[in-house]
């Protein structure tokens, strides 16, 4: 099965697609305090949960969602119709790095999708290029080490020790890239568990009700992911979503 289809199926019961609760998501979006007729961009929008809730909270805002997943964008369009915000949402099937716009945005999101740019630093640089000068905000979700991983855990994750920093170091990396942190949400272990049990369980249930090669592949993916979570990063890898205000560029 294609990776994006596995992801789409696994997120069926948790479309936020990050270890963040619905209430945590809404607090972050509300804290942004966007101006009238705000323009919003989500780089790696997946199934559009963040965008559709933002458009519900800000009824005169418009938004663009960018992703490469056809199934994810189709789900985003359905959710936008269900919430009555489809007329204010534009969806683009293209790599995040390929998105351009003639107008800047008041809020740019990239939550759990920094891999689209090859890491946190290039993501922050790309986000800055989309922001409205002076007033634009970014909402960026990124992993961090809750505690130093063992060599065995790094091997299971396929990660390097410096791939993430600790929480303080993650904040420092964002501020070194030209942002001030103005609010944040640090995911709790309960949020992580809810997300991971949902991811692995929803995919397993689909697999067991769809016998055949696709079902076998989905079940194998669910079990491999659960192994990596329970024996690898549970309690080791954290997740923080930070609301950022750009700072003036030097000179």
List the helices and strands and how they pair.
Elements: H1 3-10, H2 22-31, E1 39-43, H3 49-57, E2 62-67, H4 70-83, E3 89-93, E4 107-111, H5 120-128, E5 137-145, H6 151-157, H7 167-176, E6 179-186, H8 189-208, H9 213-233, E7 237-246
Parallel strand pairs: 1-2, 1-4, 2-3, 4-5
Antiparallel strand pairs: 5-7, 6-7
From the alpha-carbon coordinates, what is the Rg to the nearest angstrom?
Answer: 18 Å
Indicate the mean pLDDT: 95
Distance N terminus to C terminus?
A: 50 Å
Output the CATH topology of the domain at 21-154 and 161-188 and 236-246.
Rossmann fold
What's the helical proportion of residues? 40-55%
Count of DSSP E strands?
Answer: 7
CATH architecture of the domain at 21-154 and 161-188 and 236-246: 3-Layer(aba) Sandwich
Largest beta sheet, briefly?
7 strands, mixed
Task: List the secondary-structure elements in sequence, H or E.
Answer: HHEHEHEEHEHHEHHE
- Indicate the overall shape: globular
For this structure, what is the CATH class of the domain at 21-154 and 161-188 and 236-246?
Alpha Beta
Domain Methyltransferase type: 41-134
Organism: Nonomuraea fuscirosea
Keywords: Methyltransferase, Transferase
GO molecular function: methyltransferase activity
């Amino acid at each position: 099965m294609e990776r994006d289809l596995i992801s789409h199926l696994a997120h069926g019961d948790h479309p936020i697609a990050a270890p963040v609760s619905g209430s945590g998501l809404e607090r972050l979006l509300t804290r942004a305090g966007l101006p009238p007729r705000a323009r919003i961009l989500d780089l790696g929008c997946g199934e559009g949960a963040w965008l559709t809730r933002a458009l519900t909270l800000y009824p005169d805002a418009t938004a663009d969602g960018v992703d490469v997943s056809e199934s994810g964008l189709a789900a985003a369009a359905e959710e936008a119709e269900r919430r009555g915000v489809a007329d204010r949402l534009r969806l683009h099937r293209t790599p995040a790095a390929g998105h351009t716009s003639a107008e800047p945005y008041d809020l740019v999101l990239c939550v759990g999708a920094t891999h689209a740019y090859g890491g946190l630093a290039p993501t922050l640089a790309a986000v800055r290029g989309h922001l409205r000068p002076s007033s634009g905000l970014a909402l960026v979700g990124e992993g961090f080490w809750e505690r130093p991983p063992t060599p065995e855990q790094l091997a299971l994750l396929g990660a390097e020790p410096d791939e993430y920093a600790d929480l303080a170091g993650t904040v420092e990396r964002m501020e070194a890239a030209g942002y001030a942190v103005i609010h944040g949400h640090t995911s709790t272990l309960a949020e992580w568990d809810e997300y991971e049990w949902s991811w692995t369980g929803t995919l397993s249930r689909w697999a067991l009700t769809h016998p055949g090669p696709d079902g076998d592949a989905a079940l194998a993916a669910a079990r491999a992911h659960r192994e990596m979570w329970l024996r690898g990063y549970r309690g080791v890898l954290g997740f923080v979503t930070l609301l950022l205000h750009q700072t003036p560029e030097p000179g």
